[in-house]
Structure formats: C-alpha cells, structure tokens
Amino acid sequence: MFDLLIRNGTVATASDVFPADVAVKDGVIVQIGRDLGPAAETIDASGRYVLPGGIDSHVHLSQPQAPGIVMADDFESGTRSALFGGNTTVLPFCLQEKGRPLREALTAYHALADGNCYTDVSFHLIVSDPSEAVLGQELPALVEDGYTSFKIFMTYEDLRLNDAEILATMDCARRTGALVMVHCENEDAIRYLIGRHEADGDVAPKAHATTRPIAVEREATHRAVSLAEVVDVPVVIVHVSNREAMEEIERARRRGRKVIGETCPQYLMLTADDLDGMDWEGAKFVCSPPPRDSASQEACWEGIERGVFDLYSSDHCPFRYDDPHGKLNPKGRESFRHIPNGIPGVETRLPILFSEGVMKGRIDLCRFVALTATNHAKTYGLYPKKGTIAIGADADIAIWNPQATRTIRHADLHDASDYSPYEGLEIAGWPTTVVLGGAVVVDNGVLTGHARAGRYVSRGRSSLAGSTRP
Ligand code: URP
Ligand code: ZN
Ligand code: ZN
Ligand code: ZN
C-alpha cells in the first residue's frame, strides 16, 4: 500500500517526458510506471504535468540590508510564497556580520528558519569578512557540516571584497570543495558614477540603473572568472543581466574553465525604463544588477535557450514599496542611493518561465525542469535526493496545469510584500498542486501544508562543479 499515487499525468525530468504514475511511500518516490497498486491517497493528474518541485537557489529572507530597512519576507511568508509558485526547496543566504564568526550568523538564521518553513531550506553563507580564522578554520569546518556554498560580493560598500580577499576566499573553496558564487559589479566604478549623478541632482530611482551600467558588470564578471582561473576553482556567476557578461562566461568556458551562469526573471521581463515610473514608482524595480533593455532581454533568453545559463533563480529580495522601512524609506525618497536593493519574485519565477519559455516555444519541458530544479540540485549538492522524479528521490513534486491562465496580481500572491514587479502579466500554465516529502501541501490552489513541514537540508558538494573542466 502506497501513501500517495499520482495517476495519469505526464512526467518530465531534465532528460525525458513520458506518461506514468508516480507512487510515494514514506516521503520518497518508490515506483514509476503503470498499474502500481493501491494507495491511501490518489491524485488524478490527467492533462497535467508532473514535475520535480522547483528549487530556487537564490533567495533572501529576513536578511538585514541597512539600518531601519526591513525585508518584507521572513522564512514563513517567503517559503509560503515559494510553495504556491511550485517550489519545494529554497536556498536563502546566511549573512556573516563583519568581524563576527559565521557560526554566530548560522545560529541566528537557524533560529529564524527552523520550524517556520513551508518548503525545505538550505543555507548559502555570505562571507563578508574573510579573515584568516574564517578561511582557515571556520569555513572548512562548516563545509564539512554541509554548508557547501558561499556567496561573495564585488559591490556594496559594507560587503565587497577586494581582489586579495576574493582570491583567498576562492582558495578556501578550492581546498574544501565548496562552491563560490560571485555578485559581479565594480563598486569603485559605481561610487564614481553615483558621485557624478548626485552632483547633478540626478537622484530619482532611474539613476540606480545609470550608475550601474553594463560595463560595471562586464568588468567585474571578467575579473571574477579570471581570479577563479588563477586559483583553479569553479565559480557561479549569479544574476547575469546582459550579453557582455554572458560573453565573459562563454570565453572562460572556451578556455576550459568551469563557470556556471545564473539569470533571473527580472532580466528577461523588465527594463531600466521600469525604474522611470511616476512618483518614485521606479523604486519598485531597484535591484542589482539593474534590468537593462530589450536587447539584453533577448540576450538573456538566448542564454536560457543555448545553455549559457545553467540556473534560473528568482533573487527574491523583497521590500515593501509603500513603507517607511521599505523602498519609500525617508532617505530612499530623497535619493536612489538609499532605496533598498532587491525585488520580490519567488512565487512568479516558475510561472513566468513556463509561460514565456515553454508555452511560447523558446524552451522545452526538459530544459524548464533543468533550469528550475535539476541543475540547482546538481550545482548545490542536493542531487539526486532532490531535483528530479526518480525512484529514491524525495517526493517533492509540482503538478502543473498547462491550461490554467492567470493574470499576475499581487493580491493573489502569498508573500508579505505589497506589490509584484510583474503586476498585470498574463500567464499560461500554473502549478496547482504541490507535494512536499510525500504530503500534499497545496491542493488545487488551496494551502494544506503548514510552516513546520519544511525541513533544513544539509548538502553535499556540487556535482556540476566537480571539476574545473567542463
Ligand atoms: O538587488 C539585489 N539583487 N538584491 C539582493 C542582494 C543581491 O545582490 O543578490
Ligand atoms: Zn547579488
Ligand atoms: Zn541576491
Ligand atoms: Zn513597516
């Protein structure tokens, strides 16, 4: 007797699409086939796609950004929103405070997350202070404990590392087999441009985009892949926004380097013109790197199609708009420089790619699964426990109705922000039922799960980045 049987659906993995029933026992997929026998609970998935639950490997929850600024989503609301968007695992960041041990940050983030998640979660570390103690003792021990990836920044005054620090952190990754993710923007160039804009009194949200032009991202991307080459370590270039940064990734790959590229919905769907709205509305679209133009959108779609990008993540980093602790904080109303960076998108990530990518014929269903689940699991050491429909894998499943049509309205979403950057976008296809660890947690659009259902997942080392050679 199975616990759950999903019948008559079309199953898709990163490599195959086939009609099959999926049987679940004790939270794990135990059989895939036909006439599998009785189950305590049966779902009829006729006319539906049965896909691995989405894995969003780039999410910010309860992460401080500046004094007085509060992130809209905590672990409860952020993972609830993720779940409704067809995700079963999210990877938020655990931010090291400068001068403080990483363990201290982990204790704090675990206290926030544990018992408060609707999806499974696993943390990346943000290394803001790569001291000898951190790189020599703390990080190697944490990698052994299953914290196998860390993000470093080339921008943001309080987070940026210099080249020596980047090299030292990458060397720690080389020694420990961890994976480094890099935010590539040249902080000094941005500072210079901010100075010029402020001197001209050009302080509206749009200036956020003009002070972070493509050259700033291209230069930093080139430097990041070059420093990784010097150290001889794989690297993930996160949230790539344009063709020139993509070309740096492709050039490095042609030199034999293992470089993993990530892009996000904002670079496919938004442009810098969105930052130009009336009454400071452009603040809703302030994120870094900024959205570019239609040519960059087209380039990023090409990257999705051709494999420049292995990962498609949300970079969900939500701040309320009409809120003194959010986008319209008192200083943020005076200058773009004080508008918190980041936009919501964990719930709309998958429907946008499904609708704009699969339904419009840009990518097939296998590529969709790879970009949204399988590659995240492989890159970040969760595979094959997660990221695929296979015997022995966790029963984390999203059942999609390709016939469902919806218009994105923030009022229908489940995050704690007060807007969606994609308000009004027409979507074809939606994940209507979600199964987490064998339990139905969203049933035809109705929440049946709870915030204690999500578990913390310790990770192994990356298999996608297992070698510096492609
Ligand atoms: O603007 C953004 N992307 N904020 C989130 C932090 C980051 O850089 O990923
Ligand atoms: Zn970033
Ligand atoms: Zn981010
Ligand atoms: Zn508030």
What order do the helices and strands come in, and which of them pair?
Elements: E1 2-12, E2 17-25, E3 28-33, E4 39-44, E5 49-52, E6 54-59, H1 75-84, E7 87-95, H2 102-113, E8 120-121, E9 124-126, H3 132-144, E10 149-153, H4 163-176, E11 179-183, H5 187-199, H6 206-210, H7 214-231, E12 235-237, H8 243-254, E13 259-263, H9 265-269, H10 294-306, E14 311-312, H11 349-358, H12 365-379, E15 397-407, E16 426-436, E17 439-443, E18 446-447
Parallel strand pairs: 1-4, 1-5, 6-7, 7-8, 7-9, 9-10, 10-11, 11-12, 12-13, 13-14
Antiparallel strand pairs: 1-2, 2-3, 5-15, 15-16, 16-17, 17-18
Helix pairs in contact: 3-4, 4-7, 7-8
N-(aminocarbonyl)-beta-alanine binds next to loops.
- Poorly predicted tracts of residues: none
Give the amount of beta strand, in percent. 15-25%
The class by helix and strand makeup works out as: alpha/beta
CATH level-3 fold name of the domain at 53-367: TIM Barrel
Helical stretch count?
12
Question: For the record, what is the CATH homologous superfamily label of the domain at 53-367?
Answer: Metal-dependent hydrolases
User: Which radius of gyration do the C-alpha atoms yield?
Assistant: 21 Å
How confident overall, as mean pLDDT? 97
From the coordinates shown, what is the CATH architecture of the domain at 53-367?
Alpha-Beta Barrel
Order of helices and strands: EEEEEEHEHEEHEHEHHHEHEHHEHHEEEE
CATH level 1 class label of the domain at 53-367 = Alpha Beta
Number of strands: 18
Q: Mind summarizing the main beta sheet?
A: 9 strands, mixed
Task: Measure the end-to-end span.
Answer: 44 Å
| Shape by Cα distribution | globular
Tell me roughly what share of residues is in helical segments. 25-40%
Query: What ligands does this structure carry?
Result: N-(aminocarbonyl)-beta-alanine, zinc ion
GO molecular function, one term: dihydropyrimidinase activity
Keywords: Hydrolase, Metal-binding
Protein name: Dihydropyrimidinase
Domain Amidohydrolase-related: 49-441
